[in-house]
């Protein structure tokens, strides 16, 4: 039994969608053929079913890299070979608007977790084949998806230290979220293929304590779109 996920590894498919929100995991499980719960413990809610005839799982990892890393590590221990994150993110660029999709090619490691896993200069990069599959799947469904570098932070609501937004906007980073660097780093050091697609839910430099609202129609629609794209990519070529 995987101790934090409470999944029996024998029941775990090798291809898995991960997402922060347990509610989103349940919603995506509803898309699967014969989708059914596998386990529920802490923020980790797991489902299994099939997509285009291939067995897949959907597992929520909660908010933030440390808790998500526990999820990714246990899934890998349980035999996972491909992990694709279906998340949300705040945009850094004017032309990337709420409701748009972003496919992350790499993540700036501004999280604390990966500093305790790998040396400073180690890059957090998505698997090239998974990025290609996500791009192709988005295009096949006729969704425009922006492709590029995202930033992973630990902080959602700012404290007294300013956010690094301006610097990374200038550097061309597309969007900010809170788990991609953990996913890509753990994938690289454990030899597992990882990727991520994100629905933009606002602009990162908005005052999140007043303006954050990921429950709009445009964001809901983008999450539905990215879920289908990620499922298609997860089983492409199998
Ligand atoms: O929508 P999810 O997958 O949770 O992703 C984003 O949303 C959460 C913050 O609201 C963080 O987990 C961030 O990475
Ligand atoms: O971390 C996140 C996730 C969604 N939207 C944001 O602005 N930040």
Automatic annotation (TrEMBL):
CDD domains for the chain: UP_EcUdp-like (cd17767)
Protein name according to UniProt: Uridine phosphorylase
Organism, as annotated: Metabacillus halosaccharovorans
EC main group: transferase
Pfam family, one: PNP_UDP_1
Reactions mediated catalytically: uridine + phosphate = alpha-D-ribose 1-phosphate + uracil
Enzyme Commission numbers on file: 2.4.2.3
InterPro entries: Nucleoside_phosphorylase_d, Nucleoside_phosphorylase_sf
Nucleoside phosphorylase domain span: 14-231
């Amino acid at each position: 039994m995987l101790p934090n996920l409470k999944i029996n590894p024998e029941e775990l498919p090798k291809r898995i969608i991960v997402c922060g929100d347990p509610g989103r995991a349940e919603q995506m499980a509803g898309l699967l053929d014969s989708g059914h719960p596998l386990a529920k413990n802490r923020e980790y809610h797991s489902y299994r079913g099939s997509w285009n005839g291939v067995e897949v799982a959907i597992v929520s990892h909660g908010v933030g890299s440390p808790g998500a890393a526990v999820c990714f590590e246990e899934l890998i221990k349980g035999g996972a070979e491909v992990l694709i994150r279906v998340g949300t993110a705040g945009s850094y660029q004017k032309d990337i608007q709420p409701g748009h999709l972003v496919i992350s090619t790499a993540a700036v490691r501004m999280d604390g977790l990966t500093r305790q896993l790998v040396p400073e200069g180690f890059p957090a990069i998505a698997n090239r084949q998974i990025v290609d599959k996500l791009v192709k799947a988005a295009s096949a469904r006729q969704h425009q998806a922006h492709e590029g570098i995202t930033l992973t932070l630990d902080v959602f609501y700012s404290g007294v230290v300013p956010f690094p937004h301006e610097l990374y906007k200038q550097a061309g980073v597309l969007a900010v979220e809170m788990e991609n660097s953990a996913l890509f780093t753990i994938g690289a050091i454990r030899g597992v293929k990882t990727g991520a697609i994100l629905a933009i839910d606002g602009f990162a430099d908005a005052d999140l304590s007043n303006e954050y609202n990921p429950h709009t129609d445009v964001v809901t629609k983008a999450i539905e779109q990215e879920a289908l794209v990620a499922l298609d990519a997860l089983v492409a070529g199998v």
